[in-house]
Amino acid sequence: MTTTTLAVLVPLLPFLGAVAGLLLGRTVPGLVRPLAVLPTLAALVIAVLVAARHGGGADIDSATELTPTGSVPIELALHIDGFAALVAVLVGVVASCVQIYSTGYLRDDPRYPSYAALVSLFTSAMLLVVYSGDLMVLLVGWEIMGICSYFLVGHYWETPEARAASLKAFLVTKLGDVPFLIGLFALAVDAGSFRITTILAKVADGGLDHPTLIALLLLAGVAGKSAQFPLHTWLPDAMAGPTPVSALIHAATMVAAGVYFVARLLPVFAASSAALVVLAVMAAVTMAGSALAALAQDDIKRVLAYSTIGQLGYLTGALAVGDRGAAVFHLLSHGAFKALLFLGAGVIIHAAGTNSLAAMSRMKGLRDRVPDAFWTMTVALLALAAIPPFSGFFSKEAVLGAAEHAATGHSETAPTAAGWIVLVAGLVTALLTAAYATRLWLLAFNGQGPAAPDHGRQPITMTAVLWVLAVPSLAFGLTVGVLPDWFDGHSLTPTLTTSVLGTGLALVGGLVTYGAWRHTTALAVRHPMGAVAVDAGADGGLVEAEAIATHTPAYGDVAAAHDPADPGRLLLGPLHRHAAVGFHLDALYAALFVRPVQAAARLVRFLDREVVDTYVRGAGTAPRWLGAAVRRAQTGNVQTYLSALLAGTVVLAVAAVLVATVGA
Q1: Cβ(539)–Cβ(353) under 8 Å?
Q2: For 148-162, 275-289, 330-344, 564-578, which range has the lowest pLDDT when averaged over its residues?
Q3: Which residue, 531, 549, 573, sits at the end of a domain?
Q4: Residues 307 and 342 in one domain
Q5: Nucleus: is it a keyword of this entry (predicted)?
Q6: Based on C-alpha coordinates, what's the Rg of the chain?
């Protein structure tokens, strides 16, 4: 079987599994789990085979014209380079782990068949984006992911938080997709094709007429899909969905799509220095702002959500300084340890019965209840904090090294300003990342107080995948010497300067947070606040615990607001209350956009109902009244008719005489 045929099967198998799951899920319940897991596993195996056949060598290209569309044809095209081959493997690994994990996590959920089918469709759409060689075909996968995220985030649709979060995610990403679509058409018109290889060849020849405009339009869509400032506010609220969905969205699909798109078409963005500077500023604000917000969150999933936003900032920062290899390296590394963090958080939530870190900090022995989650999440948090020799150290230092390279004027494409912006923001974020990672670990696993509630053992399907993902989180960085052959040939080896600075700042962040925790814990012992009541129902199962914990954010807010043992409050000081609510961006957007739009909608409704409908009703009422008046004259009496005829004749005669007299 040819490599092209195998590549076609990679997105096709999860799609067929999704269709079969939707059709047979209710009628043949025994097939639901095999249809969820086996097609995704098969797609992973084939993706590994495609990557092995590629071997970091020549790109794989194949195309057939999908439909004649005039001067700019749409083609069903594949374009697989080393980057795409490895990203497809990442998507397959994370999606397979999520599907296996979900069989235990949602084992009692009556909506599991539709959930599993949507996860398979989500996976298929992302794989289509990864392998697509035509921008219009890529757009299909791009939009399908948006639809799937709407349904998956709103899985617990009976709760208002889930409904609001799914609608917000859909609308914010669609807001970015409008200029994105315009940018795609503008790019196709300039290049004369939607084919990625043709566009890149045109850019290499300097053939784009409006590179800055096109790049900025495309960045709007990337900001929405990859949750970058200022369109990042949907991602923390998306935690209202099941935890496995969060792992899938944050690690391998949806948010990775925007970064992947920029990496795929990096020469288009590099053709405009202004676009790279804008991308660098966007990355810097995203990195630093999200790290500060993560340090103030009480909900464990919201901490990880803001962490994802910040790590995506590193990815866009690497692209802003023109290093696709560093961006892809961190994308692969981040996908492994972030999926592990979310799936581990799901185990902790089940064991604790709450999402609240403040509540967990008052539970003694939680780490003993979930030893698998404790050890694997420790590995993942060390990778997140970029502590050597874990994978996050190598990939994050590759980004900082690329920024240093651009800042010192050694980059041929990236402006020096972009390099300095990314480098400074990246170093500051390294310190803050270690701080919030340490805070999460201390509050979740070192609680003081009554023993943690016993909600039963977690299914083996939930704990086994944690160890699977712990392997790349620990050892993936060792591939740093091999990966350049799969990308652009640039060295990804960390530089001495950024390694010392980045690791030193990470250690400082971790040690300072530990010191703050010891101080605040001592204060809490001297001034006890009383235990936080936590009752998610010991016999309620995973679905009930998840629903209660996820959809009561006010509980976490209240706990954090009155918890003196939270080191984040000491570290942030008066900034804490602003960081806890995402620096009021939601309130700002509500004042600037949501309320004016709602007011305009109310005005339009008033005009439609009270003005337009008045004329419409009048147009129907006037003939009806006229008909009623005329109907009264139809008496059936011949004498009345003759009298009326005679009166009319007299009136006409008098009128004629008057007219003749006036005329004379």
Answers
A1: no
A2: 564-578
A3: 573
A4: yes
A5: no
A6: 31
Alpha-carbon distance 202 to 205, whole Å?
5
pTM of the model: 0.86
Q: Which of 484, 479, 486 is nearest to 50 (CA)?
A: 486
Cβ atoms of 579 and 292 within 8 Å: the answer is yes
61-to-50, 64, 80, 133, 153 alpha-carbon distances in Å: 13, 11, 7, 8, 35
Over residues 137-152, the mean pLDDT reads: 92
* CA pseudo-torsion sign 176, 177, 178, 182: positive
Contact (Cβ atoms closer than 8 angstroms) between residue 299 and residue 553: yes
Sequence-separated (6 or more) residues with CB below 8 Å from residue 377: 340, 341, 344, 345, 348, 441, 444, 466
CA gap 565, 443 in Å, rounded = 9
What is the torsion angle, in degrees rounded to the nearest 10, for the CA atoms of residue 310, residue 129, residue 36 and residue 376?
-30
Total number of domains in the chain: 3
Strand partners, 554: none
Cα(14)–Cα(8) distance, rounded to whole angstroms?
Answer: 11
Whole-angstrom distance, CA of residue 433 vs CA of residue 558: 24
pLDDT digits (tens, 9 = 90+) for 596-638: 988 999 999 988 888 888 888 888 888 888 888 777 777 777 7
**Do 285 and 356 belong together in one domain?**
yes
**551 in a structural domain:** yes
pLDDT tens digits, 494-545? 788 888 999 999 999 999 999 998 888 877 666 654 433 333 333 334 443 4
Task: State the DSSP code for 485.
Answer: G
Question: Per the domain annotation, does 386 fall within a domain?
Answer: yes
Please check whether residues 525 and 616 belong to one and the same domain: no
In a shared domain, residues 303 and 439:
yes
SS3 207: coil
Task: List the domain range (segments joined by +) for residue 590.
Answer: 581-625
Q: Is residue 34 part of a domain?
A: no
Residues 472 and 600 both lie in one domain: no
C-beta neighbour count of 618 within 10 angstroms: 9
Phi (first) and psi of residue 64, to 5 degrees: -140, 140
Residues 335, 437, single domain; the answer is yes
Residues 287 and 320 in one domain: yes
Dihedral angle, C-alpha 559, 562, 567, 569, nearest 10 °: 110
Q: Using an 8 Å Cβ cutoff, are 40 and 96 in contact?
A: yes
Does 614 reside within a domain? yes
Contact 369, 351 (CB under 8 A): yes
Q: Tokens representing 207?
A: 């053939």
Rounded distance between C-alpha atoms, residue 110 and residue 155, angstroms: 11
